Amino acid sequence: MNVVLLEPEIPPNTGNIARLCAATRTRLHLIEPLGFRWDEPTLRRAGLDYWEHLDWRLWPDWPTFRAALPPDARLWFIEAGGPRRYTEVRYAPGDYLVFGRETAGLPPQLLHEHPDRWLRLPMFHPGVRSLNLANCVAVVLYEALRQLGFQGEVAPPGD
């Protein structure tokens, strides 16, 4: 699986997502511009000492990232207002889960170009528009991994 963060802004979110991706052996794609510097202490602290275990790529912009993907790459755009819930699709190994900036989400043009790939997390309170980005990534990624049978899971001690 692949997690894509388009222009992430908050270092602790990115650090937590990096740790999640390291733990699940999921490749993380970060697309610039980033809202922080690489030497940001909160970025490193949130990822703790897991950065060395992370498979990640840094891309200068969306067009460069998109051009590097195979034509048949399956991208899922997770954003509020999507026509389908994230649980209503079948994920496949190698899929890309795309998330936008914490303050602005994904660009509307991108969502409208791919309405069949636009997914949402259900919300239950009209006064709360979204969840924390790291939480959203964890929820969707673990659903995809669940559907794929948690392939590669480390056996618990004693098994």
Automatic annotation (TrEMBL):
Q: Where is the tRNA/rRNA methyltransferase SpoU type domain?
A: 2-142
The compartments listed are: Cytoplasm
Q: Which GO terms describe its molecular function?
A: identical protein binding; RNA binding; S-adenosylmethionine-dependent methyltransferase activity; tRNA methyltransferase activity
Keyword terms: Cytoplasm, Methyltransferase, S-adenosyl-L-methionine, Transferase, tRNA processing
Q: Which reaction does it catalyse?
A: 5-carboxymethylaminomethyluridine(34) in tRNA(Leu) + S-adenosyl-L-methionine = 5-carboxymethylaminomethyl-2'-O-methyluridine(34) in tRNA(Leu) + S-adenosyl-L-homocysteine + H(+); cytidine(34) in tRNA + S-adenosyl-L-methionine = 2'-O-methylcytidine(34) in tRNA + S-adenosyl-L-homocysteine + H(+)
Q: What is its EC number?
A: 2.1.1.207
Q: Which GO terms describe its cellular component?
A: cytoplasm
SUPFAM superfamilies in the record, alphabetically?
A: alpha/beta knot
Top-level enzyme category: transferase
Which CDD domains does the record match to this protein? SpoU-like_TrmL (cd18094)
Where, by residue number, does S-adenosyl-L-methionine bind? I78, G100, L121, S130
Cited InterPro entries: Alpha/beta_knot_MTases (IPR029028), SpoU_MeTrfase (IPR001537), TrmL (IPR016914), tRNA_m1G_MTases_N (IPR029026)
State the Gene Ontology BP annotations.
wobble position ribose methylation
**Pfam families reported in the protein's UniProt record:** SpoU_methylase
Q: Does the keyword Cytoplasm apply?
A: yes
* Primary location: cytoplasm
What the record says about family reads:
Belongs to the class IV-like SAM-binding methyltransferase superfamily. RNA methyltransferase TrmH family. TrmL subfamily.
Q: What task does this protein carry out?
A: Could methylate the ribose at the nucleotide 34 wobble position in tRNA.
Name of protein: Putative tRNA (cytidine(34)-2'-O)-methyltransferase
Q: Which organism is it from?
A: Limisphaera ngatamarikiensis
